[in-house]
Write a structure and sequence with these properties.
homodimer; 801 residues; alpha/beta; 6-stranded parallel sheet; elongated; disordered N terminus; binds thiamine diphosphate; binds magnesium ion; Xul5P/Fru6P_PKetolase_ThDP_BS (chains A, B); Probable phosphoketolase (chains A, B); Xul5P/Fru6P_PKetolase_C (chains A, B); lyase (chains A, B); thiamine pyrophosphate (chains A, B)
Chain lengths: 801, 801
């Protein structure tokens, strides 16, 4: 491999005048169509003079970014066609929907996807009218947009999506337009370092195109106002070699842009050839300095220069709709007509509204078109994940609570097998913020190391140029990588501390919205679910305390589209295996799995675990004392590993102290089971719910997270008035495990007291038991302050059956 | 001003041997105390050989980062004392609690804050024992830690906190240690650009110290493995001039670190002198290239080199507790004793455990000590914000719904006055992700421009080197700046699109936790509340659609400590003014205010608004039709501007179509009023609730956000079974405003149907009315698809009284 930082690149070919004119025609056509979408609901080809009634009553959309996106699209078309590239593009400023829609319509992928929007005048009229119009299409590069894996509504995620798409797609080029405003966001700023994890052998290439149009909404951008040498230092510091394209003269910019793309692609090809020829396992290959294109063109380029005496083109005023009163202000109407005619539509479209040959000259064919590349509809490429038989990893359970295992450690062994079985296919990855080992999944390293392109020292472990475990201390980047990977048709898992997954609250929102929408689009094929393993959870933050305690991600996702969201709380090792098996084979969901990493009791055999997880919620008969003829006096319900332990310990105390009491123990794995049937696909019917929880007996529910969530799920049930929930009440610090549950009133002694307080008639007769429970709690308080550990009767507790 | 990028700096003085030895003694002492905290619960001075019973039973804490933090603290002490600096330090790797606690104890600020932890042997024993121990102190640089404004539990926010602290504190130096792991996070990566907003005239200085100890938890870090020239390019690209300190020989590193700090501080002083001497309003002054110190020392430096045959010092294995089995493994015990004795404690502490004179030599006095600087306990410095009389901004309301205003625009005028009235004091800032004008607060620019240190072009507006409005397209940075600003005793407001405030879910978690804890610490003085103005809300995303629709931040914060969290939904302009006045004068809260920016009806006069907001929830008698003797047949409740409009329109329809029906209209401004009294300080008693909502009549509640939140707040109320809530059901796209409410069943027609369905007896008699409502909804559907605007009867609706 030659010195990776200065590859020898052939000097790019000069464009002929014809090519140049054809590119410009394509660009003008896409600009025309972008403006048309924002403004017109009739007269699409301007066959008659523009009149107010041709104009939409509400002008909604973003013009400013569109000419830049169109320029990039035009030039990507050229190189894709010339080089027969397999390429997709992630459009960071996704508010430039009109641009991407325009291009899809021109290349024909739009009409193939939506046959009613034909590539002729009626279709153009429809394209214009539907944009940002009731019953029409969204203003952004949404799931509805062919060729997109990225909405760009919430800015910041384009580059990490692009890296995710490129991973394990060695033949793919992922271009990525980054807005200079978007570049200010944290997620984007972090994601530049994706190149430290990109394997030039097994991964494709990412080509960032930083679009310095100078402005965000109403302000200049930080990067656009850096002196150029400072910007270059920054980009080099990010590990890139900048290639600049600057200007406002279209022909000059076309020439520069074509040359820049040729240079960039030649370099990428050279880097890849070098890396792939080389035995890179021998180590020491320098990380390439991948190219980045810096495109500096005016915001709202080719739009109105001035409106009402104020400058617009090249300023922040071009961001949305430059001419705002077209229907009422004849001057604006005239300006709009001039603007549209400046693109010379008659040269671009024939009389029936079809794009002319010159416009189509740069457009590639078939699946090479950016709007038709199957990678952007990843379900087309998705294969089932090979999942090993669970029994190979199941822990033996002779008697409930007879042994202890660390659930995530055992899961790690199963994931190791999945990693091994996808060695050749390379379609499974695990991401995490440097917590894979901390979360005890380290067995996976036996099958795949951690992706790492930098220097490796002797003390390092499991680093691997070709690894498929990805660890960067950025939850945003982990999430973005995984989303990009899944949306292009692969599989994965994100393991994260429970509290800090809130960092990606907003990202998962967008992904859920994406999935909810794609489920309604028949042409979008299902993709693998986004799977979270949340561990190092609220109850076991022994090292870290209060700042690391937050079980609210569950609440957050359960606010979102029920057809997409699933939440699982496996109480032990075998149930975790069963849940993992299920979520890894599911499609189009966001699955949240909360599980423990600390040694905890095994309750269910593998078969029982499978059945229990399939039910989602069920009786644990062996743990209760109910008289089958009478039914229970009280239901002890639990969800989560620690609450399950406390409920079982409470059940045991009750069995001992109040043997005549009929206790039923119910465990809930699948939280959505608690919802009414018509509110969530997993919801129980009222009959099922009443049978399990009773309509009229006290239910003491020990829950892993914020207790009111259970009320929010179950408030419609008849038995809701008898439901008493214990959970995390936002009380925490660095303390012992049992002190955490005790401080939050989730401990076994408190649960027994709850039973006594709530079962009619028990208050008086069980007063002595209640007092004894209270005494243990007081004893605990003194003991831990003296010894720093939990009471022996708690620490050494075991299930006695 | 000399060329800002190459200031002439005096060459730093060489340390004398005595100084050097004293610095090293201080460093050794703090290292000794850090190790002691992690391991020991007795025998603090090692007066006897170490035995297992001296060791804590649970070893919890982070050693790896501690020697680095200690080194920085030692050297900051020296320069603070030598230069009489007013300085604080933000410790990014806040998991290094033992280090910061050790230093506070040495300098005496700890004992002043916690008199029981004396600066002698018994105090040292207590310091050790309490660390990460039940009933003791957290393992992190928590609110309990003197001198801290930053916990560092969730990594990523140190540098934005540091900038926030430096703003408007021209005399302050804010040092900021950034972990090389932390530097990978998005929020940290974005926050480097804070220097583009730092005014060298009115703001203090931020000195970032990038701590390249090479590792995060189990992996090397990206920045530590960059070739040095690439790292330098990155830091220069961030606008900094790097100063390197590298080594593992303590004496050499002390020399280098002292010189580096002197160089950095000299440069800072020169930049500030130049800027402050210069008429910088004349423009054109170059932005200084502020120094950054790159400290490259081993992780776990001075700790065990090897444990059980594996390398530890200088590796990831040093992250937490290097020797894990000290109680049970005699080898580990011996190693620990050697390690502790390697610091030569007898040289550092006298027989009674007091630090010797040499150790204390570098320590500054009084409020100059990092643990005693009042800026780190900002409430000490806080002044009341001057708030103008609201009547000056109030909109006149002759009759409810008689006129329209844009609430946030009017609020902007009030904020303009606050900006103007703090012109000299400079203790109020507004932050936002380039949405101040989009959110219609632009009047504030009349009183203060937008902070901006880069080039200003002719087309730019309101940019100002000395501005106090801060706009960067990073919600994380906005939040971090504001937190740092508030915690150092100033005031502010964060205005944000409602959906995208989820980006800072995790940050606000940490801030709420911080406030919850400080409220229990008598020595921490109250600080100004963190105020959110959320606008461009879910119901009015005309330009953007589904990706911009999410009202869940309210749910998120209402999961947190009730003593800290407040949520307000003012329904019109005057109520928004009243709420703003209240939140801006409050302390120690996180206030979430959701308000509209679109023209909306004025319902209440200023006096009525004040009274209504003080009540938090109340009857709008003028809107109802209830017979005072009979009470209402149905309650129409609402919270939020759009739901209020729909409820009033429904009330008007009912008045017209079903005049005999007794309708009560209730508006809720302060959402926590719905909670039981014992669950939130603002909660209503059951008597109040029943009086307002009735215990037995149907309540149709139109709510701004996710409907189940209202159930979660009110499920304990007697009338809960009759409560029927409408709200946002995660259905949205780019469409008309009324189509949004209709799609989510929150529209006036649906509400009337809800009333008919729920008031006993109405179903049959009002069947015709119900059908008419349904017909309008159908008509709407067709109308918007044809016209693109709402039905005239909706668009032109007004309240008829
Ligand atoms: C995270 C986030 N914050 C705020 C916004 C609101 N917003 C929409 S567009 C925009 C400016 C985008 O600027 P840039 O990335 O430069 O795109 P362009 O100039 O090409 O339109 C902003 C701030 C957003 N979409 N996402
Ligand atoms: C946002 C976030 N993600 C994950 C963690 C878990 N975590 C705790 S410490 C740590 C490594 C920190 O590395 P660095 O910043 O280099 O600190 P140091 O090496 O000085 O300990 C990680 C990943 C965290 N605290 N915050
Ligand atoms: Mg821009
Ligand atoms: Mg580190």
């Amino acid at each position: 491999m030659p010195d990776a930082s200065t590859p020898s690149t052939p000097s790019p070919t000069e464009l002929s005048e014809d090519e140049l004119r054809a590119l410009d025609a394509h660009w003008r056509a896409s600009n025309y169509l972008a403006v048309g979408q924002i403004y017109l609901m009739a007269n699409p080809l301007l066959t008659e003079p523009l009149r107010p009634e041709h104009i939409k009553p509400r002008l909604l959309g973003h013009w400013g970014t569109s000419p830049g996106l169109n320029l990039v699209h035009t030039h990507l078309n050229r190189v894709v066609k010339a080089r027969d590239l397999d390429a997709i593009c992630v459009w960071g400023p996704g508010h430039g929907g009109p641009a991407v829609l325009a291009n899809s319509w021109i290349e024909g992928s739009y009409t193939e996807t939506y046959p009613d929007v034909t590539r002729d005048e009626p279709g153009m009229a429809r394209l214009f009218r539907q944009f940002s119009f009731p019953g029409g299409v969204p203003s952004h590069v949404a799931p509805e947009t062919p060729g997109s894996i990225h909405e760009g509504g919430e800015l910041g995620y384009s580059l990490s999506h692009a890296y995710g798409a490129a991973l394990d797609n060695p033949g793919l080029l992922v271009a990525c337009v980054i807005g200079d405003g978007e570049a200010e966001t944290g997620p984007l700023a972090a994601s530049w370092h994706g190149n430290k994890f990109l394997d030039p052998v097994h991964d494709g290439a990412v080509l960032p195109i930083l679009h310095l149009n100078g402005y965000k909404i109403a302000n200049p951008t930080v990067l656009a106002r850096l002196p150029q040498d400072e910007l270059d230092e920054l980009l080099r510091g990010y590990g890139h070699e900048p290639i600049h394209v600057t200007g406002d003269d279209p022909m000059a910019v076309h020439r520069e842009m074509a040359a820049a793309l040729d240079t960039a692609l030649d370099r990428i090809a050279a880097f890849q050839a070098a890396a792939r020829g080389w035995d890179s396992d021998a180590g020491g290959a320098a990380r390439p300095r991948w190219p980045v294109i810096v495109l500096r063109t005016p915001k709202g380029w080719t739009g109105p220069r001035e409106v009402d005496g104020l400058p617009v083109e090249g300023t922040w005023r071009a961001h949305q709709v430059p001419l705002a009163e077209v229907r009422d202000n004849p001057d604006h109407l005239r300006q709009l007509e001039e603007w549209l005619r400046s693109y010379r539509p008659a040269e671009l479209f024939d009389d029936s509204g079809r794009p002319r040959a010159q416009v189509l000259e740069c457009v590639p064919a078939g699946e090479r078109r950016l709007g038709a590349n199957p990678h952007a509809n990843g379900g087309l490429l998705l294969r089932d994940l090979p999942l090993p038989p669970l029994d190979r990893f199941a822990v033996p359970v002779d008697t409930p609570g007879g042994a202890l295992h660390e659930p995530t450690r055992v899961l790690g062994e199963m994931l190791e097998q999945v990693m091994a079985d996808t060695e050749g296919r390379r379609d499974f990855r695990i991401v995490g913020p440097d917590e894979t080992a901390s979360n005890r999944l380290q067995a996976v390293y036996e099958a795949s190391g951690k992706a790492w392109q930098a220097e490796v020292l002797k003390v390092d472990e499991n680093l691997d140029r070709h690894g498929r475990v990805m660890e960067i201390l950025s939850e945003h980047t982990c999430q973005g990588w995984l989303e990009g990977y899944l949306l292009t048709g692969r599989h994965g898992l994100f393991s994260c501390y429970e509290a800090f997954v809130h960092i990606v609250d907003s990202m998962v929102n967008q992904h859920i919205k994406w999935l909810r929408t794609t489920r309604r689009l028949p042409w979008r094929r299902p993709v693998a679910s986004l799977n979270y393993l949340l561990t190092s959870h609220v109850w076991r933050q022994d090292h870290n305390g209060f700042s690391h305690q937050d079980p609210g991600f569950i609440d957050h996702v359960l606010n979102k589209a029920p057809e997409v969201v699933r939440v699982y709380l496996p109480p032990d090792t075998n149930t975790l295996l069963s849940v993992a098996d299920h979520v890894l084979s599911s499609r189009d969901y966001v699955n949240v799995v909360v599980a423990g990493k600390q040694p905890s009791f095994d309750w269910l055999t593998m078969d029982a675990a499978r059945a229990h997880c399939a039910r989602g919620a069920g009786l644990w008969e062996w743990a209760g004392t109910e008289d089958v003829r009478r039914g229970p006096d009280v239901v002890l319900a639990c969800a989560g590993d620690v609450p399950t332990l406390e409920i079982l310990a409470a059940a045991q105390l009750l069995r001992h102290h109040l043997p005549q009491l009929g206790v039923r123990v119910v465990n809930v794995v699948d939280l959505a089971r608690l919802l009414p049937k018509d509110e969530h696909p997993h919801g129980m019917s009222d009959a099922e719910y009443d049978a399990l929880f009773t309509p009229d007996k006290p239910v003491i529910f020990a829950y892993h997270g914020y207790p009111w969530l259970i009320h929010r799920l179950a408030y419609r049930r008849e038995g809701h008035v008898n439901l008493h929930v214990r959970g995390y009440k936002e009380i925490g610090t660095t303390t012992t495990p049992f002190d955490m549950v005790l401080r939050n009133d989730l401990d076994r002694y408190r649960l027994v007291m709850d039973v006594i307080d709530r079962v009619p008639g028990l208050g008086v007769t069980a007063a002595a038991v209640r007092q004894r429970m209270d005494e243990v709690r007081l004893r605990h308080h003194e003991w831990i302050r003296e010894h720093g550990t939990d009471l022996p009767e708690v620490a050494d507790w075991s299930w006695q059956g």
